[in-house]
Amino acid sequence: MSPSVLPCVKPPAIYLLDTIPGESTEVVVLNRKKRKPSTVKNKSHPNATTVHTQALREQVTPGLTLAASTAPMEGAGKYNAFAQVQAAGIASAQPILIGAAQRADLPPHGVTVVIVDYGSSEGKNSLSPMRNVIQALRARVTPEVAISVTHTDLPANDFRGLFSLLDSSCESYLQEQQNIFCTATGRSFYEKLFPANSVTLGWCSFAAHWLSRVPVSIPGHIITSKAGGEAAVELKRQAATDWSTFLAHRTNELRPGGRLVVVLTVRDDNGVAGTDEMLCMINSVLQDLVALNVVREDEYARMMVPDYTRNLGELLAPFSSALCQQDLTLHQHQIVEIDDPVWKSFQLDRNPDTLLNSYVGLARAVWFPALLAVLDLDRSTIERSAIADLLESRLRQQITAWGSDSPVFRVKEIIMEIVKNN
Ligand SMILES: C[S@@+](CC[C@H](N)C(=O)[O-])C[C@H]1O[C@@H](n2cnc3c(N)ncnc32)[C@H](O)[C@@H]1O
């Protein structure tokens, strides 16, 4: 897409940035700049304007500010290296996933069996579930029948890392069997991603609690669960809309009798989500950085982790609506507490450095990109990485102060097996 200069951009305009790993894909310009950015109209978002990032960077004046929606995980192998808590959660979900692959209705003989991995990130955590699913399906179809796996994620995801891993890892499903194909789709799963009735088995782990957008900001906090009053209502509504939208698109894409297994963090009956402790520590470090004039107040005010951990009622709600009941059945769901693997290893090796590196590495890979995506556009790359490094080192101190008597993460996950009705 080549930009053409439009005569004028009137605020408040929404800018969809070119996709760059680790950066926001949607930003709202809050302050007007004097010169005009290079822009093109965005066809799929009629009210939005697409701006080429570099063009915007070069033309912004200091003080231009942005509000983020979602950002992918940190790339270059960082998510893969540190997503151990998620890996432990996935291990617990494998029996249900394998069962779903054994139970899913297959396409007519000879037609490619389509598997989709929604929200794959860099893919390390997808290798084992995809290998198991392929094995279960291969036991049901002859070797001449092709099986395809498509990994999906946000456009700015590190797909290069994903493909390198698929190509080189001895754990890759491509190493084991013949007639297996892999592809990727860089589009939000809140959009229609595949032709109707084409997917036999869908898998989505630790991704569908990321909202499509954060409609509010919360004074003094970065996590959605700290919202009160009207902001809390607005977030609840956004989370309900996103969950229904996600299910509606998957319903369309699944073949009749096809199955979808979704793994999500779940808020317990006391309203607690197992990632709250870590996120509160990050928030407190950010407040320190504001006090030290490292992070600007406006920047902090825009920072939000676009994650909403739903409770069981919110997760089950769509399945009791008449529309959903007609198309989908929740075959089973199970809530499991993830045994924090980082803390478990610490119980064995008592190595505080490994514990700290693992916790901080996870926080940096998962949450820092969304937070840092809203730094002012006049921040240089060097400044951005200096802020990330400072955030990281101060978080290290916070975790040290937390002590190692109990795990930082006490995450409960829900595993849902959903069937598209025949
Ligand atoms: C915590 S990672 C989970 C990755 C992997 N499935 C796992 O279990 O380790 C969440 C992933 O969801 C992706 N994601 C968030 N919102 C998304 C959206 N709207 N569409 C597609 N992917 C999304 C993120 O970019 C990220 O890669």
Automatic annotation (TrEMBL):
It comes from the Bacteria. Keywords: Magnesium, Metal-binding. Transmembrane segments: none annotated. SUPFAM superfamilies: S-adenosyl-L-methionine-dependent methyltransferases. The keyword Nucleotide-binding does not apply. The keyword Cytoplasm does not apply. It holds the Pfam family Methyltransf_7. InterPro entries: MeTrfase_7, MeTrfase_capping, SAM-dependent_MTases_sf. This is SAM dependent carboxyl methyltransferase.
